[in-house]
From TrEMBL:
<keyword id="KW-0547">Nucleotide-binding</keyword>
<comment type="function">
    <text>Necessary for normal cell division and for the maintenance of normal septation.</text>
</comment>
<feature type="domain" description="EngB-type G">
    <location>
        <begin position="22"/>
        <end position="202"/>
    </location>
</feature>
<protein>
    <recommendedName>
        <fullName>Probable GTP-binding protein EngB</fullName>
    </recommendedName>
</protein>
<keyword id="KW-0342">GTP-binding</keyword>
<keyword id="KW-0717">Septation</keyword>
<dbReference type="GO" id="GO:0000917">
    <property type="term" value="P:division septum assembly"/>
</dbReference>
<keyword id="KW-0131">Cell cycle</keyword>
<keyword id="KW-0132">Cell division</keyword>
<dbReference type="InterPro" id="IPR006073">
    <property type="entry name" value="GTP-bd"/>
</dbReference>
<dbReference type="GO" id="GO:0005829">
    <property type="term" value="C:cytosol"/>
</dbReference>
<keyword id="KW-0460">Magnesium</keyword>
<dbReference type="InterPro" id="IPR027417">
    <property type="entry name" value="P-loop_NTPase"/>
</dbReference>
<keyword id="KW-0479">Metal-binding</keyword>
<dbReference type="Pfam" id="PF01926">
    <property type="entry name" value="MMR_HSR1"/>
</dbReference>
<dbReference type="GO" id="GO:0005525">
    <property type="term" value="F:GTP binding"/>
</dbReference>
<comment type="similarity">
    <text>Belongs to the TRAFAC class TrmE-Era-EngA-EngB-Septin-like GTPase superfamily. EngB GTPase family.</text>
</comment>
Length: 202
């Protein structure tokens, strides 16, 4: 699946602009700077699929990418959700972001799972908990992906995973497994791909 061409399909900055449901979708969320663009590029073997953001918090759109086809024929859509937790974002911007997320997450049957990216050096932050609250309320299945594994000391790796598992223990829509990835060493990327392939086969 991930050996196939992956191309930009569609951008939406409001619910009315969402593409018609079609292929199964997997979405990626996370704080600005968590490494989401890098992870999407690693996942799809591309250097520039998702632009690595130099202006955190700038993108306010859902960007859809298609694997193995266009908006009608792709086998899988990857959805890049706008980064959150940008300190300088205005209240109004946060409100419009939340509306867009809620509208997207509500009853989108084609959306199989949201991967919530969390910086592996720091672990979960309050804004990540807010994201998970929204996902739990939307009854949208999600899974935590820890990023920047190459920056974390070997002795800390298990601790970070355990802390994270503990924090999601009582969350109804959280998938009780964590994947620790690095877009630099590619650690965990095969696990993430396998997880996505399994979801598509279900
Ligand atoms: P985004 O804002 O979530 O899209 O994050 P980016 O992909 O733009 O990455 C933010 C910063 O983290 C950039 O400086 C990346 O080079 C760096 N980064 C992303 N992933 C990794 C990783 O796996 N390892 C390391 N060491 N740095 C990373």
């Amino acid at each position: 699946l991930f050996a196939q061409e992956c191309d930009f399909l569609w951008a939406a900055s409001s619910a009315s602009q969402l593409p018609p449901p079609g292929a199964p979708e997997i979405a990626f969320a996370g704080r600005s700077n968590v490494g989401k663009s890098s992870l999407l590029n690693a996942l799809t073997n591309r250097k520039t699929l998702a632009r690595t953001s130099h202006t955190p918090g700038r993108t306010r759109e859902l960007n859809f990418f298609g694997l193995g086809g266009d908006v009608d024929t792709a086998r899988l859509r990857l959805v890049d959700m706008p980064g959150y937790g940008y300190a300088a974002a205005s209240k109004q911007k946060i409100a419009s972001w939340t509306d867009l997320m809620r509208d997207f997450l509500r009853g989108r049957a084609s959306l199989l799972r949201v991967f919530v990216l969390v910086d592996g050096r720091h672990g979960l932050k309050p804004v990540d908990a807010e994201m998970m609250d929204l996902l739990d309320r939307s009854a949208m299945s999600y899974q935590i992906v820890l990023t920047k594994r190459d920056e974390v000391k070997a002795a800390e790796l298990d601790k970070r995973v355990e802390e994270t598992l503990k924090a999601i223990e009582k969350r109804p829509a959280a998938f009780p497994q964590v994947i620790f990835t690095s877009s630099q060493s590619f650690a965990g990327i095969p696990d993430l791909r396998a997880g996505i392939a399994r979801l598509m086969a279900e």
